[in-house]
Write a structure and sequence with these properties.
Blueprint: H1 4-18, H2 30-38, E1 46-50, H3 56-63, E2 67-72, H4 75-84, E3 89-92, E4 105-111, H5 120-129, E5 131-142, H6 147-150, H7 169-178, E6 181-188, H8 195-198, H9 206-216, E7 226-233
Parallel strand pairs: 1-2, 1-4, 2-3, 4-5
Antiparallel strand pairs: 5-7, 6-7
Length: 235
């Protein structure tokens, strides 16, 4: 069970370490744009991104006509959003208790963050509370079946320092269902198919990173690093 200390430790980590540097709102990738299109028309839609970070994803959705809102536990992230994504509504808040009225949003996204939440079931319940009955939920989560992880070549991200719970696709599906959501579609996360991702760090590693990016494009979804889950309310 999560405690106040869990939240305080997470806030300190994200403010001081994870976001303890200057933000740079990079251009969205080709893959971000593909995923955004899969959400369908967003003209006038009320969209919430939970754990919105610097707001890059929400900025893309706003460009597609959405009315955007975001929450993040880190003050630094929200301050940056308010300065650079001026058309949005942003709040410092935990996913488990958000400052929005019930039944407001048409689309709720949570991109690569749910695995770091202290109380995932409560957060998913809160997302449903603020969503309309017909809302779409797009959840990007890591996969314990990731082939490189199973071979012991990948042990997680920087955020393992505070919390990073990685489940199998079947376990995620069970969590979503027990929390009141039904998975209607799954998609691979192929953002690594870009020179920006490949050409990071030491140039000596670039061939290996390129090879990894290419195999992700052909591996079955059960071997992928991260998987998008498109969900709807069960009832």
């Amino acid at each position: 069970m999560s405690t106040l200390k869990d939240y305080e430790r997470a806030i300190d980590f994200y403010n001081d370490k994870y976001y303890g540097r200057e933000f740079a709102l990079k251009n969205t990738s080709w893959h971000d744009k593909v995923v955004a299109k899969r959400l369908g028309s967003l003209d006038g839609a009320q969209v919430l991104d939970v754990a919105c970070g610097g707001g890059k994803w929400l900025k893309l959705l706003a460009e597609r006509g959405a009315q955007i809102a975001g929450v993040d536990i880190a003050d630094r992230a929200i301050d940056y959003c308010k300065q650079t994504v001026v058309q949005g509504e942003f709040h410092v808040a935990a996913a488990e208790e958000m400052p929005f009225e019930s039944g407001r949003f048409d689309v709720i996204t949570c991109m690569g963050s749910l695995e770091h939440f202290a109380d995932k079931s409560r957060a998913l319940g809160e997302m449903q509370r603020v969503a309309k009955p017909t809302a779409k939920f797009l959840l990007l989560v890591p996969n314990a079946g990731f082939a490189t992880r199973r071979m012991g070549l990948f042990r997680g991200t920087l955020q393992t320092a505070v919390r990073e719970d990685v489940y199998s696709l079947a376990e995620w599906d069970q969590l979503f269902r027990e929390s009141g959501l039904s998975v209607t579609a799954r998609w691979r996360d192929l953002h690594v198919l870009s020179w920006n991702w490949i050409c990071q760090k030491n140039p000596v590693t670039w061939p290996l990173r390129a090879a990894q990016a290419l195999v992700l494009g052909i591996w079955p979804i059960s071997w992928q690093y991260q998987v998008y889950h498109l969900c709807r309310k069960l009832n």
